[in-house]
Amino acid sequence: MGTLKQRVVVGLSGGVDSAVTAWLLKQQGHEVVGIFMKNWEDDDDTEYCSSNIDFVDAAAVADVIGIEIEHVNFAADYKDRVFAEFLHEYQAGRTPNPDILCNAEIKFKAFLDHAMRLGADKIATGHYARVRHNPATGLHELLKGLDASKDQSYFLHRLNQAQLANTWFPVGELHKTEVRRIADEIALPNAKKKDSTGICFIGERPFREFLNRYIAKEPGPIKNDKGHVLGQHVGLSFYTLGQRQGLGIGGVKTKGAQRGGGDHAPWFVARKDMATNTLYVVQGHEHPWLLSHRLYAQNASWVAGHSPLNAAYAAKTRYRQTDSPCSYETDSSGFALSFPQAQWAVTPGQSAVLYDGEVCLGGGVISGVTDAASAATTKP
To answer: Staple partner for 151: which of 126, 145, 252, 271, CB 3.0–4.6 Å?
Structure first.
């Protein structure tokens, strides 16, 4: 991050990672200003989503570190740029990842623009990732965080050169245990605060309960891989591929279930047919309908500003997944990835993110798969 003193605006969330980020930058002699982003207003005073508590924590951290903090409301931007797309994708039967869109549209666009208006030289967040300038290419590279168990480059893969050039990720150079140790050592008030999970507008509440408020239920049949009706679903938007809980068919048995199955094997959501409003479920974790050797992606975004060469890389099709070897090739609408080892429950709407070693190249939104059972492409 260099020795030249710079004005750095830090996104303070109320969590320990952003708190230590601000402290590290202050210790390095930079002029640090904290910004708390309020991104959601609906029912914000409930037990499930309370940014008020987080702001109190962020303000307490700023006080201990000795920096100013500003409360900025991006709720309107969030609703227009992130939440509207989130609902549109669910209504189309896909399973989006709003955190990825939030990073691209809010944290590293609206927030970055606001910080620059405040005279910032750089912004910084508590993400576990790294930025490296490659003198050979003149480009900024997005790297995985050093703590493999906390790496968040998957969520940041849509960032571009201009955004990376103005961003620091100090805790990306550390392991989480070290971040906690620093927070405890300097007596930060949130040193032992539990990490947040999920997105604010849902929080810890039951997901279906939340979605009910925005998407109408359209019941339809639940069928198995033989086409037999097993029950009724409440609406395709409320299910995701690979889902095991909440299907309402726990007592249903079938003879001759597929590999890994048996009469009492658990059921998994395997396909969604939007045209007939049918939910297909299968028994057994390793059922061929749940396994894909090839996926297709659209809406690609590349860190370098251009697509990589058609070659062998590694990819994640969901967060916290280990990198899987694959071959990459562009096609007319985006790109395709082929995997020697079948991938489980590859889900349209999620992101396929490409890696070359520790370098995150970018990725796209999964639009379809070819499953191991029929070698047929399914696209919701």
So the answer is: 145
Query: Mind listing the pLDDT tens digit for each residue in 85-125?
Result: 999 999 999 999 999 999 999 999 999 999 999 999 999 99
Instruction: Find the mean pLDDT for residues 323-338.
Output: 95
Asked if the structure places residue 193 within a domain, the reply is no
- Whether 200 sits among the annotated catalytic residues: the reply is yes
For the chain, what is the mean pLDDT? 90
Tell me the C-alpha distance between 91 and 83, whole Å: 12
Residues 250 and 278 in one domain: yes
CATH code for the domain in which residue 21 is found: 3.40.50.620
Amino acid (1-letter code) at residue 269: V
326 carries an active-site annotation? no
**DSSP string for 329-377:** EEETTEEEEEEEEEEES--BTBEEEEEETTEEEEEEEEEEEEETTT--E
Instruction: Extract the runs of DSSP E, i.e. beta strands, from the chain.
Output: 7-11, 31-38, 68-73, 122-124, 129-134, 139-144, 167-168, 220-223, 229-233, 267-273, 278-283, 291-302, 312-316, 324-331, 334-344, 351-356, 359-371, 377-378
Cβ atoms within 10 Å, residue 177: 10
146 and 60 in one domain? Answer: yes
Asked if residue 277 and residue 334 are part of one domain, the reply reads no
- Longest C-alpha distance within the chain, in Å? 70
Asked whether residue 340 is assigned to any structural domain, the reply reads yes
Out of 49, 102, 326, 360, which one is annotated catalytic? 102
Report which of 45, 39, 35 is spatially closest to residue 14, judged by C-alpha positions. 35
Tokens 């309402």 -> residue: 248
Domain boundary among 286, 317, 338: 286
Strands 31-38 and 7-11, sheet pairing: parallel
- Structural domain span for residue 157: 7-185
Which stretch of 82-96, 110-124, 259-273, 311-325 has the lowest confidence by average pLDDT?
A: 259-273
